[in-house]
Write a structure and sequence with these properties.
By secondary structure, the protein is an alpha/beta fold. 46% of the residues lie in helices and 13% in strands. Helix 2 packs parallel to helix 7 and helix 7 crosses helix 8. The N terminus is likely disordered.
Length: 178
């Protein structure tokens, strides 16, 4: 027999996860990730608008870019002009020591991803903030890499999904990956 309680996912109690799940189910909320590698700023912003993104949550440790328009202040201003709220939290980024290990290995390895997840789970306040935002507004996690499977945003998205039940859509220049 189905009951209200049997419809709620069995997730570990983390913060106010039950209320977040209920809020995100009342209104169709979507969680996205996107990398701007290979995109111009106008193309990137068009992609966000086409996906109905309301909040761009920058999870780069250092929100700087050699690519025009993708550094924090210019990106925030461009988002504001398009009606997209911009947030940044460096505590969700890959810390310098892990970035160095990734560069040495040439890619994110399973060990580096595991190490990043351990780091991320210690960022309790930052993780709760991104969960709260993603549960209430169509949110896109931002980093550089085009392929989400080679980026730490995959781990952040997985942790948000564990806490909210939201599915993740990975936006790419050529396609949408669910």
């Amino acid at each position: 027999m189905l009951t209200a309680n049997s419809l709620i996912p069995r997730l570990p109690p983390t913060g106010n996860w039950l209320n977040l799940c209920l809020v995100s189910r009342r209104r169709k909320i979507s969680l996205f990730t996107a990398g701007y590698e290979g995109l111009s700023l106008p193309d990137f912003l068009r992609q966000l608008k086409a996906a109905s993104v309301e909040v761009l949550f920058d999870i780069r440790y250092r929100p700087q870019s050699r690519k025009p328009g993708f550094s924090k202040n210019k990106l925030a201003a461009a988002c504001k002009r398009r009606g997209i709220r911009y947030l940044h939290d460096p505590k969700l980024g890959t810390p310098p020591d892990q970035m160095a290990a990734m560069k040495e290995a040439g890619e994110y390895t399973p060990q580096i991803f595991k190490r990043y997840r351990r780091f991320l789970l210690k960022q309790v306040e930052s993780l709760q903030t991104v969960v709260d935002v993603a549960s209430k507004e169509n949110t896109c996690l931002l980093c550089y890499e085009r392929d989400y499977s080679t980026c730490h945003r995959k781990i952040v998205a997985e942790e948000i999904t564990l806490r909210t039940g939201l599915p993740v859509t990975h936006l790419r220049a050529e396609e949408i990956v669910r």
